[in-house]
Amino acid sequence: MANTIRLYQAVMLLALSEERGTMNGAYVEYATAAALLSELLMHERIAIEADNKNKVSVVDEASTDDALLDEALGQIKSAKRQRKLQDWVQKLGQLKDLKHKVAQSLADAHIVAAEKEKVLWLFERRVYPELNPEPEQQIREGMRSAVMSDDDAIEPRVAILVALANSAKLLPQVFTKQELKQRKKRIEQLEKGEMVSTAAKQAVAAIEAAVMVAAIMPAITAASTASCSSTSC
Length: 233
Hints:
globular; disordered C terminus; mainly alpha; single chain
């Protein structure tokens, strides 16, 4: 994977349609938030306190020289109470314009263009068609190498990206249905962090927990609304 590309940018490149510049995938916000936290964990800016119910603490509050990472770090630092990693995935996933901030960072690097287009001649939406395909090609090659081989020496960032992409339903952008079926066990190994560092393993576990909650929340809300309607609450 290209070293100059952040994990959160890699997620967005996979989510963006190359030509149209629209965003695909479910739970992209949560995958992006998890990518931010993964970067902070691996750069030892935050830590998970095993003796404090696995809550997150800030261990280095100095600037990361990255606006989005600094914003995430600032949110954790200024919080009134400590939270678990999966709680931070959900909270940071709700940051205003998170997806567009990430896409704009790619535009600033001249990897995509930042444009606006009319929808039904009435509404405007922001789109980010690809300008430089090389970074995404390198990302895809790294993911394919990790998933399609049986090599135990996996770069942590690539393993995390596979887990992030799977949580956001983005793996079909990189692999065929047959490949995903054939390499299901390998993908599960990468998701469980069996071949990566403790920090990467913690990040992957948080992704799974947060996305699971995000996935069931609409069902819980719908059930609650239906219940209220039937009882006139």
